[in-house]
Design goal:
about 25% strand, alpha+beta, four-stranded antiparallel sheet, about 35% helix, 3 helices
Length: about 80
């Protein structure tokens, strides 16, 4: 299963928390900004994107794990509009 969500960051703590949540999940997390795609578990890859604009995230995996991960994004106020 795949779910897409739009996220945005307000500070560097949110960026670190995003990568930590993704790294501890068994889901595949793909982040898109423009024509660039990176692994959502890679801090280096994430920092190569323009973090001032919303990013588009595709979470792939078991539906329960996807829901738990996206709920985590919401609890840290990462989900945009």
């Amino acid at each position: 299963m795949t779910r897409d969500v739009k996220i945005s960051f307000q500070d560097k703590k949110q960026v670190l928390k995003f990568v930590q949540m993704n790294s501890s999940s068994s889901c595949q997390v793909d982040v898109r900004s423009g024509h660039s795609y990176i692994d959502g578990k890679s801090i280096i890859g994430l920092l190569s994107l323009n973090l001032l604009k919303p990013l588009y995230v595709s979470v792939i995996g078991d539906s329960n794990k996807i829901t738990a991960l996206i709920d985590g994004y919401q609890s840290y106020h990462l989900v945009a509009g």
